[in-house]
Amino acid sequence: IKSYEYRMKVKDLSNKDIKYYSQTYIIPSQIIRGLLAFRWAQTMRLAVEEINQSPELLPNYTLGYKIFDSCAYPLTGQRAALAVLNGLSEAESPMCSSSYPLLAVIGESGSAQSIVVSRLLQPFRIPMISYFSSCACLTDRRKYPTFFRVIPNDDYQVKAIAQLLVHFNWTWVGLVRGDHEYGRFAVQGLLRELQGTKVCVAYQEMIPLLYNQQRALEIISLAKVVVVFSAEGEMTPFLRDYMAQNITGIQWVASEAWVTASVFTGSEYYPYLGGTIGFGIRTGHISRLSNYLQTINPQKYPNNPLVQELWEALYGCSPSLSSASQLPLCLGQDPRVAYNAYKAVYAIAHSLHNLLHCQPGSGPFENNSCAQSNSISPWQLQHYLQEVKFTIAGEEVNFDLKGDSIPYYDVINWQRGTSQNIEFINVGLFDGTKPAGDELLIEEDRIMWAGHQSEVPVSVCSGSCPPGSRKAVRRGKPVCCFDCVPCDSDSIECTFCPENFWSSEDRTSCIPKKVEFLAYDSLGIALTVISAVGACLTIAVFAVFFHHRNTAIVRVNNSELSFFILFALTLCFLCSLVFIGEPTVWSCMLRHTAFSITFSLCISCILGKTMVVLAAFTATRPGNNIMKWLGPKQQRAIIFSCTLVQVVICAAWLIDAPPYPSRNTKYERSKIILECSVGSSLAFWCVLGYIGLQAGLCFVLAFLARKLPGNFNEAKFITFSMLIFCTVWLAFIPAYISSPGNYADAVESFAILGSSFGLLFCLFAPKCYIILLKPEKNTKQHLMGKEKKEHVIG
């Protein structure tokens, strides 16, 4: 293919004398794609002409360039780069001696060629912008410090392909790559992305650089889905051999290097390549490209068959409506790679523009200096390239610290056109700037799959095992390949039902588990009724005591403490209701804390009453003034202090590890038991232990005062009440530990109600009996055992 050379002068209009400013070189690649390289070169020429005609961008300066062809071969690219670096002879060179001969390179298209050229340019710190080299290896700034590109690197492409495979649940795929760095690094990146997913690789094969038909035919697909990282030049003979073998039904996943290759658009390719899906470079619109290409047409160059072939065979369009070709008119749409070359030229132009408009004293170089307009070094231009940011055709262009551009891909699907040829249809977008997991957007209803099918193809090594069976991995095969064997007593890797389901008796289906908690069913209603009855009885006793508050039995037994005890007992009866219903965060925290504080208040009052009774009889001894230390204020202080200790324990419990609702799925496989986990077992047993300590102390004091004189010795009733209380809670502990979920809640509710009824009846039933049925005994003399003695004396 002929090498085209273009040399342009740079005129400084402000000084009215000619100065040769710079030359920018473009090195197209791929000899088999020489016609496309010719098109990219024309697009670059268009971009340079637009910039040179622009009054806003680089005014008073004209860009110059020279074009070389590397023929898609690294050695040829190396020779071209060396020719550039050696410079032109003094007779041929129109450049001033003070001007650097080369400021930037646009190219290469192939990653292998870019690696060679970039390494040659590196010692001279000459920046290079590639429009088609996507190998992730080029992001290494230590090896390629002057490399930039306007195409996303393959780290994003392999991430997009991995997401595509996972999205369509293709777990068994083949990988085919070209024999070059692009294919090698792309496959390595894809394997890295697939780690941790359910996708397995059936095989990895390489299309030999020196094509061998026999070797190519050995790459027989065992997978329905095949991912190919290759250039279209390598794919052409490879696919033609497959077509000769009449292999159809393969769902091809194409890399950006060939997903928009117009060489495959012929109708003969559709039975074999129709439905291909892949990620292509984002399309862009170059408004003047159509008219510009028409200036390079077969009419203007009648003896150059390259132009006619370029328009029709590869462009897939005709130069004009008057052409004899049946192909559609070229509109300048969908240039893709050419659009990247267009952006690369503008990136250099904007960087030069920013460099030339540097304000002295605020520059980026030593001592805040700027570059000299008549002596610019490549490294100075590279600094501005790294910082450049501009918008072209509505798209923002800039480079990150590794020289990469913003990662965007179009999702391309190969579908049959109206003329039976293949058309490239956009069916989605990959936006690398979006959060992880949200980058891929696909319109599935617009996709046509291999074999002209509308259903997503299935590509698995082994189908899912039916219920009642398990996977048995095949020895020497990937984990995606397995046999299904029935589940039995010795099975260790059966498919487990989800947490909210359980296996049926025949182990063939998952049945939703029944959710249980202490609800308002028969048991819950019974507890509610008992709780309400207990609270009502307590309130009734309170009313009786309040009505007869001036009688002897109420006054002698410390009416204030009695009212406190009745109030606390009412709360004890009511707090059992909190244990009924579905556990929530608030109900779980309220359950144990409410019952522990109310019971602690109740026992504190009883403890105060016991101390008063014991002190009252002890105070009758001569010289004993103990009652002055147990007045009403001291009694309230005792109740407050004893209850405060429990409040502090509960507060610490709620702050450190509060109770919370939990789902018990282990006790019974067919049920999910909703229960309240205590959070901190230590705190739970602390609150119970403190209540037990109070009850034990109260029992000991009451037991010591049980034989004190009097017809109504309250110490006896306190002793009985504490005995019942302790018995109930001692029986509660083993029952609570051995009961799950709703039964544990029921046991605790019964313990609360039982102990509350025990306290109510033992402490207040005898008093209510005298008040209501034996009012003649409701006298101080009778209660103190002096009634008979006074009668005899009288």
From TrEMBL:
GO molecular function: G protein-coupled receptor activity
Pfam families: 7tm_3 (PF00003), ANF_receptor (PF01094), NCD3G (PF07562)
Subcellular compartments: Cell membrane
Transmembrane segment boundaries: 523-546, 561-581, 593-617, 637-655, 682-705, 717-737, 749-772
Keyword set, alphabetical order: Cell membrane, G-protein coupled receptor, Glycoprotein, Membrane, Receptor, Signal, Transducer, Transmembrane, Transmembrane helix
Location of the G-protein coupled receptors family 3 profile domain: 523-787
CDD domains, alphabetized: 7tmC_V2R_pheromone (cd15283)
GO cellular component: plasma membrane
Main subcellular location: membrane
Membrane topology type: Multi-pass membrane protein
Descriptive protein name: Olfactory receptor C family, v3
Species name: Amphiprion ocellaris (Clown anemonefish)
Lineage: Eukaryota, Metazoa, Chordata, Craniata, Vertebrata
